[in-house]
Amino acid sequence: MAILEMTGIRKSFASGEVLHGVDLTVEHGEIHALIGHNGAGKSTLMKILGGVHPDHEGTIAIDGEPVSVRTPKEAIEHGIAVIYQDFSLVPQLTVAENIALGREPRLGAAALVDHRELAARSAREAARVGIDLPMDQPVGRLGVAGQQLTEIVRALAQEPRILVMDEPTARLAPGERERLFAIMRDLAERGVGIVYISHFLDEITSVADRITVLRDGDVVARLEAGETDADGLARLLVGDDAADHRRAAAATPSAGGVMSPAAPPAEGATSPATPAPDGVTSPATPAPDGATSPATPAAGGVASRAGAGTPGLEVTDLVVAGRPPVSLRVAPGEIVGIAGLVGSGRSRLAKAIVGAAPSTGTVAVAGRALRRRTPARAARAGVLLIPEDRKTQGLVMTGTVQDNIELTALGGALTRAGLVRRAARRRLVADAVKRFQVRPADSGRIVDTLSGGNAQKVLLARAASAGPKVLLLDQPTAGVDVGAKAEIARQIERLARDGVAVVLISDDLDELLALTSRLLVMHTGAVTTTLNTADVDRPGLLSAISRVRKEAA
Ligand SMILES: Nc1ncnc2c1ncn2[C@@H]1O[C@H](COP(=O)(O)OP(=O)(O)OP(=O)(O)O)[C@@H](O)[C@H]1O
Fold first, then answer.
1. What mean pLDDT comes out for the span 380-386?
2. Residues 6+ away with beta carbon under 8 Å from 256
3. I need a labelling partner for 47 at 20 to 30 A (CA). Which of 34, 461, 519, 551 fits?
4. Cα(first)–Cα(last) distance of the chain, in Å?
5. What is the pLDDT of residues 79-113, one digit of tens each?
6. Is 243 domain-assigned?
7. Which of 209, 238, 267 is the endpoint of a domain?
8. Which keywords describe this protein according to UniProt (predicted)?
């Protein structure tokens, strides 16, 4: 008998019906992937299971028994734990207290809640599943990945029978993802039914037992994981187009030639790279391994060309949080990637460049130094950061799509007197919505009612429309579906072709290899390796990232 049966689920918002009678069955001990494009209805279906949307039609049965799940409390009582895409943590409370929050109702019988005991139990819980977290730190001080891991431990601490994970890996680095899969397999072996939502189709085919595919609120396929591969899934998701994009992206040589006329392929791109003893290939570029080594352009190929003119972005001796100084030059039209583990300081470096985190050192844009750096001044100088955490740092969630895009995009839509041209403004927003495939393509939609992936696209559309000189992108495709991901990659290339200097922080190694000309690898706030992308492959990059981990151990 199935552990979970959702039958005939329908749900409407003011804008109309978004689930049109969905059935979902999960067996005991099964990892069941739920996939679909951005806005297909995955999160809404899981919020119904978590008791967040009581006003739905259809039934939910656990072990064959119909149950009422009309509040989050009822969901917990039935043994359902949901890890939502957008976190539900209390930033001021410590990691341990946040983990304990989920368990407090169970301890209600005790007259007093012993917080020290709760904290100790949280630490034991995290240790049991092998997740390392700073238990005493306020959760608000953790990066997005740390918060994601806290959510995961909190859900596991409830010892659920049914565990839902809505894009748990979108914000995790490769090592953490593997750890999470091991936890999921272990739980499944113990009979827990797991619903797993992800846009990483390769992950789905390796980790899931069965797959349900949603498209625009309808189930369009149910299959065993072995029945198809990632390309087959992409076709099911959004039709053949997306699969074609994906194949095109995969076929793109990672030789730096994809990016821009300003930085054509490295001369050495086709010559066989000599693998260094640890698997990192860097013949043309002896990777400066000292923690303090500046990440200036490496010799040869793309890098030397990039080093020729005035750099779009020049960061000199930037010291962030007492770590070794970082220096970096990015030419107009160049895309430089930053790889590293969670907590390696990538996001902080990007924030420091625009003045959103304290630092010393200098930042120059197109040859002009940015004085007294603040995000607003940086934006005026043409440096935009798209942060990792779209909800708290990027978007005005209560504003419309149009409001958000206009926040920085108005430059091109002003009359000489500085007045906003109505028609130009509408065109600019409509164009951005179309280019980035925001669904629904309605610029009057309040951003808070968009699905997560679509909110991410609004953020990118906004930055692209602002005509930046330098764009710092922190995990730009996290949570974005496969079709839109390929489109975003194309837009990044297009921006580079238009002369924007781009810094791309990503956990997606394929994305880094396909789009960048150079790669910096960071560890605990320092740049430890610089590579010409042309000289490195996926295993090589992975090893460069994990090598620093071993060195640190
Ligand atoms: N609170 C809300 N008010 C109005 N519409 C909503 C609300 N929440 C979701 N929707 C709409 O419901 C549809 C399904 O959204 P949902 O978040 O379930 O998609 P999803 O498949 O999880 O997408 P993603 O992969 O981007 O997270 C979308 O059209 C979305 O705009």
1. 89
2. 263, 265, 266, 269, 301, 302, 516, 517, 518, 532, 533, 534
3. 461
4. 47
5. 999 998 777 788 888 898 888 875 654 444 444 55
6. no
7. 238
8. ATP-binding, Nucleotide-binding, Repeat, Transport
Distance CA 534, CA 272 (A): 10
pTM over 0.90: no
Q: Quick one: pLDDT at residue 113?
A: 58
Indicate if 34 and 129 belong to the same structural domain. no
The per-residue pLDDT for 4 is 98
Phi, psi angles (nearest 5°) of residue 465: -75, -10
At 207, which CATH number?
3.40.50.300
What distance in Å separates the CA atoms of residue 113 and residue 97, rounded to the nearest whole number? 12
Q: Are residues 47 and 104 in the same domain?
A: no
The whole domain housing 378 covers: 253-382+468-553
Question: Helix (H, G, I), strand (E, B), or coil: what is residue 197?
Answer: strand
| Same domain (yes/no): 459, 479 | no
Q: Are residues 127 and 186 in the same domain?
A: no
pLDDT digits (tens, 9 = 90+) for 223-271: 998 888 888 888 888 665 444 444 444 444 333 322 222 333 333 333 3
∠ CA(472), CA(475), CA(476), 5° rounding? Answer: 75
Our CA dihedral for 252, 253, 254, 259, rounded to 10 degrees, sits at -70
pLDDT digits (tens, 9 = 90+) for 493-540: 999 999 999 999 998 888 999 999 999 999 888 898 999 999 999 888
Do 532 and 479 sit in the same domain of this protein? yes
The pick from 6, 449, 485 for probing ligand 1's pocket by mutation, whose C-beta has the most ligand atoms within 8 angstroms, reads 449
Q: Where are the alpha helices (DSSP H) in 190-337?
A: 201-207, 230-238, 240-251, 301-308
Q: Are residues 368 and 514 in the same domain?
A: yes
Do the Cβ atoms of 470 and 385 come closer than 8 Å?
no
Indicate whether 273 and 371 sit together in one domain. Answer: yes
For residue 84, is it within any domain?
no
Strands 65-67 and 57-62: antiparallel
Check whether residue 126 and residue 226 sit in a common domain: no
> Distance between CA atoms of 93 and 106, rounded to whole angstroms?
19
* Model confidence band, residue 38 (pLDDT cutoffs 50, 70, 90): confident
Which residues surround ligand 1 with Cβ inside 6 Å? Answer: 13, 15, 18, 36, 38-44, 85, 449-454, 481
- Of 111, 143, 159, the residue at which a domain comes to its end is 159
Closest Cα to atom 13 of ligand 1: 39
State the distance from the centre of ligand 1 to the C-alpha of 44, rounded, in angstroms: 6
What are the structure tokens assigned to 194, written together?
């797991």
CA 37 to ligand 1: nearest atom: 25
Length of the chain: 553
Closest C-alpha among 265, 287, 328, 326 to residue 531: 287
CA distance 435 to 427: 12
Atom of ligand 1 nearest to the CA of 439: 29
